[in-house]
Amino acid sequence: MKATVTWLEGMCFEGLSESGHKILLDGTNPGKGASPMEAVLLGAGGCSAIDVVSILEKGRQQVTGCVVELDADRAEQPPRVFTTLNMHFIVTGHELSEKQVARAVSLSMEKYCSVMKMLDKALGASSSFEIRQA
Predict the structure, then answer these.
(1) Model's pTM, two decimal places?
(2) DSSP for 45-58?
(3) With 27 labelled, which of 7, 13, 19, 55 sits at a CA distance of 20 to 30 A?
């Protein structure tokens, strides 16, 4: 996997992935784009959400929505790494099995999510979920 990050102006940069997708990164708070740490947080949420939906669909669950609320704490001093991270999954669907949703969240957090596997070495991660019937 390859990517490039190009300086645009000030503390604003454009990231370009090998597959041609762009992301605006900004070190100014607030800036024109996500900060690099916000991008990491969003990557963790996206990675886990993809896993959860995929696992549930393979389990023949009728998923109609999935939202991940992320809450992370950062170290006070540089480097300001994440020290804790909680992911709260809100899964919506028809007659969803609580057991299967719990399993999907657990498998993502502990086995499949590549981003979480990297972050897990550096922080305390936790997860929770709720089910909403569509």
Answers:
(1) 0.93
(2) HHHHHHHHHHHHHH
(3) 19
